[in-house]
Amino acid sequence: MMDHNPLLVPGGFVVGCNYWASHAGAAMWRDWQPDVVARDLERLAGAGLRVLRVFPLWPDFQPLTQLGTGFGPVEFRHGEAALPDDEAGRAGVSTVAMQRFRVFADLAERQGLKLIVGLITGWMSGRLFTPPAFAGRNVLTDPAALLWQTRFARHFVRSFREHPAILAWDLGNECNCMGPATREQAWVWTSAITNAIRAEDNSRPIVSGMHSLSPAPNAAWRIQDQGELTDVLTTHPYPYFTPYCDQDPVNTMRTILHSTAESRLYADIGNRPCLIEEIGTLGPMVADERTAGDFIRAALFSGWAHDCHGLLWWCAFDFGHLSQAPYDWDAYERELGLFRLDGTPRSVLAEMSQFVQFLHSLPMRNLPPRQTDAVCILSEGQDQWAVAYSAFVLAKQAGFDIVFQYADQPLKDAPLYLLPGVSGGRILYRRRWLELLERVKAGATLYVSHEDGMLSPFTEPFGLDVQDRSRRNGPSTLTFDALPGRPVFTTRAPIRLRVKPARADVEVLAREADGNPVFTRAPYGKGALYFLSAPIERELSQTPGSFHLPNAPALWQMYRHIARPALAGRIAAKDQPMVGLTEHALEDGRRALVVINYSPQAISTRLTLAQGWRIDEVWRGTLPAQRAENADIALPANDACVFVASASVVRHSSTDRM
């Protein structure tokens, strides 16, 4: 099953939603109404959805109480009832809840729905749900709580491992929100639950179910640790909750690319597939129905083109009629369904249904991975998500694709390296920095942008003498003379480096108003080093409108400038920054071209094809009148075209080097 699971197979992509019953929300297992559930599932399947993420709420399925005396605990029970002397009793589970879940799984199977099961669902929509026995305890670190969680996971998986509706086991819903933990404690908890699952079923993948992970060494819930212990990583990319994402309208470039960029960050650094496991607009105060539909259409094509393995909307139904917490507490938990309270579908569901139909129309099951052209290295001391997010968007605007890695990981091979927003003194280990410089000597390009970092050696490779360093007392204006249109950028960089070229071969590409060089290029062996003494990636991440407004600085041109040598392996280029382009090598030597409009306005873009290449097939959109060299493409707002190009002689591409 693992070999064919779409969550694991490159290019596999599932479309579905997170599910709680329409009548009861998180209370569905206590207020069990199978007729309502059956009708819910029929409607979801009828819309073309095929995967549901579902949740056996922990206190409903393991309703433990702990009885004792004034001197300590005596035993665990279900209320006043002693636990039975059978397998279910030893696991502390409710046989009634287990029977209800079996009915649910059978109903899903009849509708052709597959289930991702969130096993330890103790956190849901802003509320902590735990068995009474563990009230007031940190359930991530308390030994008794961990003991019973592992027993529950083993028993539940053993009970349903033969059920054909189960697609994957999820650790639980955002379990990193159930309590505080150190990195070591988070690792131990994750290891205990994953080992419990694998002890009973090694035929299905284990899905992380976490959100808001970090690659930093001091992070409690680290991307690398979840990648070590689970099979599939997950993102829950709500702009409202994620730093730097709630800046622009949801149907504009930065916000649409949120789910793609964060999922690629997790997948690349965690070395595991990553699923867009929860996504949504959180209701009508964020976007109207048309805007939400445009947003999800573009996000679906973007996630598919970037091998994000699927997209699950939150949630299936509205819950504005429920009075219990968390629906009573939080307004954004009430109007986020694919279906309204009156049962009518929202426009988002129509877009998801149409995307499923598109997938079914393709001549292949899985889209081959996209070509990548550069590695973005994240380092200690910086805001990794801020610089990663901006670097991803800038690269997309410039017309190339990046993969991520962390500074302590082995260097990935690439013709172009980005080291954005360096800060602090421990950016790269000496051995890794020297290795990176050797890659440049051999022909690669390295770009570094500076916030407050120390690099050594610096003067010799970059050809720059730092005359002095000082704190800025205000903004500074940078003029990029070497770029088209001479874009001007006002920076709030905290540090001013006053530099001068130490060699005649150093080019000054941008200066401050007083002439101080801020962007330079230095040959180094067969390659080149670019240095920018301003942390533009972090600044752009904090500035609303910096990627889509007409007056936004065209700093993507700088990325295009430094990437030009790395793009030799591509067969197509585009001329619009709001348009994304990915290339996918097909088995017959042809290339699929996915062209996405990340703008809420219709756009015409010109695809410049390499000599000998020609568009000869369309999977979505309309064939252009001119199919070779310069092909003019009309893209509706927040939509995509998918073409297939062929050549009489197929060249080797840079994907061979990545």
The biggest beta sheet is recorded as: 9 strands, mixed
How would you sum up the global shape?
Answer: globular
First-last Cα distance: 29 Å
Low-confidence region ranges: 650-658
Strand order of the largest sheet: 15-14-16-17-24-23-22-19-20
- Beta-strand content estimate: 25-35%
How many discrete domains? 3
Task: Give structural notes.
By secondary structure, the chain is α/β, with parallel strands linked by helices. It folds into three domains: 2-361, TIM Barrel (Alpha-Beta Barrel), CATH 3.20.20.80; 374-568, Rossmann fold (3-Layer(aba) Sandwich); 571-657, Sandwich (Immunoglobulin-like). Helix content is 27%, strand content 26%. The protein has a nine-stranded mixed sheet with strand order 15-14-16-17-24-23-22-19-20. A hairpin with a 5-residue loop joins strand 26 (579-585) and strand 27. Helix 5 (143-160) packs parallel to helix 6, helix 7 crosses helix 8 and helix 11 (384-398) packs across helix 15 (556-563). The protein starts with 13 loop residues before the first strand and ends in an 11-residue tail after the last strand. The model is unreliable at 650-658 (pLDDT under 50).
